[in-house]
Amino acid sequence: MTSLADGDWHRLHPASPLLRGGIFVFALLGFVIANLRERFVDLVFGIPRESGDPLDAIYEGGAVGWALLIVAGVLLVIIVAFSLSWRMHTFRVTDESVEVRSGILFRSHRQARLDRIQGVNIVRPLIPRLFGAAKLEVSVAGQDANVQLAYLGSALADGLRRDILRLASGARQPRAAVPGPIDPGQLLPAPETDPPGVGQPGDLVAPAGNRRHALNDYASARVGEFLAPELDPDAAPPESVVRIPVLRLIGSIVFSGFTVFVLVGIGAIITSVIVGGSEWLLIAIFPGLIASVGYYVSRFTKSLRYSIAGTPDGVRVGFGLLTTSNETLPPGRIHAIGVTQPLAWRPFGWWQISINKAGHSTNDGAAGQAATTVLPVGSLTDVGKVLELILPGFAIDEQRALVIRGLTSRGGNDGFANAPRRAAWLRPFSWRRTGYTVTAGAALLRRGVLSRELVLVPLARLQSVGIDQGPVRRRLRLASARLHTVTGPVSASLGVIDVDEAVRMFEAISAGAVASADSDTSHHWSLVPAVTATVAPAPGSTAAPAAATEVTS
Amino acid sequence: MAEQSVPDNLGNDAAAPLVPDPEHGYGPAATADPVTDVPPVGARLDLPEAGEWKRVSPKYVMVEIVGTVVFLVIVCAAAGALWLLLDQTWAAWVGAAIALVTLISLAFEPRRVRSIGYQLRADDLLFRRGIMYQRFVSVPYGRMQLVDITRGPVARVLGLADLKFVTAAASSGVAIPGLAEADADALRDRLVELAESRRAGL
């Protein structure tokens, strides 16, 4: 077990301020290079300069001393500010919560309760990744309530996540099978393990004789990390892992709604060239087309090396070629699941899965979409595997058959309570397929015939259920129903349903929501259920305890 | 807590898939025109098995009427200004049309207020509202995040308060307006107490 989760205060990676201020550093570099480019050209290629640059001006003005003084002063201020901000930025992980203190003038203290964790995300942007650093983000429910640790040593971040999730799961002892032996080389840049007040940046420097050796080790550890597979092979049983073949990924991006857009644009350009005389159209659309190429490329690279796998502490979704990101969602943190198939994907049998969850990482998900897409594209088999991962207990054959029917059936007597024929007035194509069923603690809503959709809502996570009726539906003896879940891309609603069936559904689902919540133990997923049942709610507080608190002074 | 003895006969068989009612839905495909099975009068949404609905105070009609009148005055003033000062004749017609529709809907206000109801069942709060556009919502107590009580200026004069039951879902929208202040406070305490005993995570 790493010592980061031992309840003491620790510091972040010493290079954190530099990595966090990355854009600023690049802007400064860009400014310097832009002003001195002729000097560089002269230096490298020996082409003589024609005009003076700021350095010449300083030299001729006799202000060399002043300039050096100013540069030194600015450097000093930057170094002092960075080291102060690094010293003041500390975090600790206790049995109860994750806490972060930061700020120099305006101190802030943020605390996230472990039992309210909605997910733990580790992001490695390209440049921090080159330096072996990673950003760890603990998401809890609420706007801007996340606790972010940027940056940590790469291996330390993985270890810390494992510890946070283990503490949150209710297991007090390290698991017998801690996945993945840690490469000793990766533990080298570990100043965070120093007790506070002791860890100085200078401690990092190895004794002079070993320096070359240490540097070699450091470099090879970095390269090893960079080339390592995105998903640690020991972290999850291989049969549970779902990946996306590259060809399917390209296909899914090409056959998307955006392509229709691009095709319309190309068509417009061709017609304007043939008809002639309207150059403005060319000017208006062409930059957009060039930008769309960038969009395709970024969607592609961001979904490369995608994997979703089941670990003991929840589902792990990882992706990315250069900037990598992987998030672990503990069990029971998923509020609604939507499986959709756009019309263009139907010949290939591809599906997409997105979810509603209470905590939102500030980082984008695969394909640059919101982090709510857990499977950007997958076959029916993949859908089955992913559903099994994110809805444990949903793997029985009966449910599997029900899901398949929910996805592909055209309607009829197939286990779903469908809309009556008169619903054709409101849903001329899809009324046969519009229906619902309740099974194994989850409600399944099916709808859409051109763009097929199946929504699964775990009843233990359901917030409330409502049925509505307006004048038109009253005339048709219909109603509409809606399962209220936390905000997200999945909307669990049925546009048409028979009025009596709606009442039956209302009663069944509201009773089911209460029953499933009573038997739900996912907030402490490692405890044995018998123990969890006796855990009494904390008395005294009038509202649900806050997931995160922040004090700014 | 006597209410907990009410058996929930629905939650226990949640594992069994619901069997669709054969009477409607997908009868033999040979049936004629889709419209033939629509009766002359439609069917209202209603919960036949629900118990007694608690209604909000009839005085709440006054709050709604005052709000509507203020709205009317603003609309009339804007329309009148456009008409008389800027000589825009259409503004008068639009203003008159809005005023007419608002006045007609005002006539239904007492019925609309009577349609608002709630009841505390064994495990969930049931809420209904609307006559033309009906809405029924059931919220299990354990899903409560907080209870919000607000008092507008008119409601305060009449001794009324609005109670809002907030869950993690923005779309739940359970807001019970026009409760007597004492009732609102008592209901809030009762709801908090019920939520405490049935606490669920998120």
TrEMBL record, chain A:
Is the keyword tRNA processing assigned to this protein? no
- Start and end residues of each stretch annotated as Disordered: 174-206
Question: What PANTHER family would the database entry show?
Answer: UPF0699 TRANSMEMBRANE PROTEIN YDBS (PTHR34473), UPF0699 TRANSMEMBRANE PROTEIN YDBT (PTHR34473:SF2)
Family matches, as InterPro entries: UCP026631, YdbS-like_PH
Kindly list the residue ranges recorded as spanning the membrane.
18-36, 63-84, 253-274, 280-297
Q: What is this protein called?
A: YdbS-like PH domain-containing protein
Domain YdbS-like PH: residue ranges: 86-162, 431-507
Superkingdom of the source?
Answer: Bacteria
Name the UniProt key words of this record, in alphabetical order: Membrane, Transmembrane, Transmembrane helix
Automatic annotation (TrEMBL), chain B:
* Keyword terms, alphabetized: Membrane, Transmembrane, Transmembrane helix
Asked if Transmembrane helix is a keyword of the record, the answer is yes
Q: Which positions fall inside the YdbS-like PH domain?
A: 114-191
Keyword Transmembrane part of the UniProt annotation: yes
The segments labelled Disordered in the record are 1-23
Pfam families the UniProt entry points to: bPH_2
Membrane-spanning residues: 61-84, 90-108
Q: Where is the signal peptide?
A: none
The family database entries (PANTHER family) matched by this protein are listed as: TRANSMEMBRANE PROTEIN-RELATED, UPF0699 TRANSMEMBRANE PROTEIN YDBS
Q: Which protein is depicted? A: YdbS-like PH domain-containing protein
